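From: lab user (bench 3)
To: helpdesk
Subject: output format question, protein + adenosine-5'-diphosphate

Hello, I'm new to running complex predictions and I'm not sure whether the block I got back is the full result or only part of it. Here's what I submitted:
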Amino acid sequence: MTKRVGVIGGGQLARMMIAPASELGIEIRVLAEQDGMSAALAATATGDYRDLEMVRAFALDVDVITFDHEHVPQDVLRALIADGTAVHPGPDALQYAQDKLVMRAKLAEIGAPQPDWAGVSTREELQAFIDEHGGRAVVKTPRGGYDGKGVRVIGSADEAADWFDAFAGERILVEELVDFRRELAQQVARRPSGEMAPFPVVETVQKDGVCSEVFAPAPHASERTIEIAARIGTEIAEALGVTGMFAVELFETTDERLLVNELAMRPHNSGHWTQDGAVTSQFEQHLRAVLDLPLGAADPVAEATCMINILGGPAGIDIDERFGAAMRAQPAAKIHTYGKSARPGRKVGHINVVGDSIDDAVYVARAAAAHFE
Ligand code: ADP
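Helpdesk reply: Thanks, we reran it on our side. This is the complete output you should expect:
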């Protein structure tokens, strides 16, 4: 019998589950925030994911509920579970991706390596942390941040004064400013029955807080780094009971330590390379994992893959024309589009190029991406 997966959220992550779903004979239903979103290629209902009755009605005729984002409130998720609905990842795991303070406390409890951090509720506490950490620190809003929004590097507590006003009574997360050599991401798929499959650790490059390029596997990573990253990913996935795709964003420090930056419990931008560069894509793997089907091989199919995100360019450019030009000029580049209108800074697609070396892959991917500048 055809399995039905209900995805809450109509963005590009839901959209990219559609192709592997049809290959596997899985039906995708989407609960989108509004009409005409990326995932509208699948059967789509439109409604508010915070509205329990809306979500309940959507969940009625699917085998499992999963997500395009991590924002569905805990009480909605817990009510679904009480109804007997399968929800993956479940609310116990998702809370650690919904609140960075809750995540930091849990990672400390399980002994995962992470930057020094504190939850502060006054300027005095924040200033004391900054003074103890060399005069600079990173402040983060615990909830609702993404793509670098809600993250600020500061040298004085005054620079977070507006946040203390806006989030009165709540704690703000402060972290040491990590001196990192580069950022890495470790992805792991985990089934409810416990089977796990880690992808190789990758290097991620962010521009203005947004992921811009991914090199997979992470170039020049030592055996030790590869092994430790996989162990960090699998140990946290198990300790938190994550089901589906799980991503751990890591800092590789200048003294070769790995520290956890943050967690994502869904397919992740750092894993888009797997669509063309791995035996099983993260989107197929996510579907297999949430349905508790055997996981696919997570091995790369080539020496190297480069992924470059395409952001909507200056107002007025014809994005479809740019996609066409990139396809014409670089037939080896795999072009992925999200069917979104092109606002500046908005992720509208990505390019994957596989190659015999990361340098070759990067060269072709950047040549294709240049058509969007
Ligand atoms: P978001 O949830 O918006 O993605 P992150 O917590 O991942 O926010 O932070 C965004 C970026 O800010 C990171 O990718 C990294 O480049 C930088 N950053 C975050 N925390 C630190 C830190 N403690 N030290 C140094 N840089 C940091």
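A quick orientation on your result: The domain at 3-87 is CATH 3.40.50.20 (Rossmann fold). Let us know if anything else is unclear.
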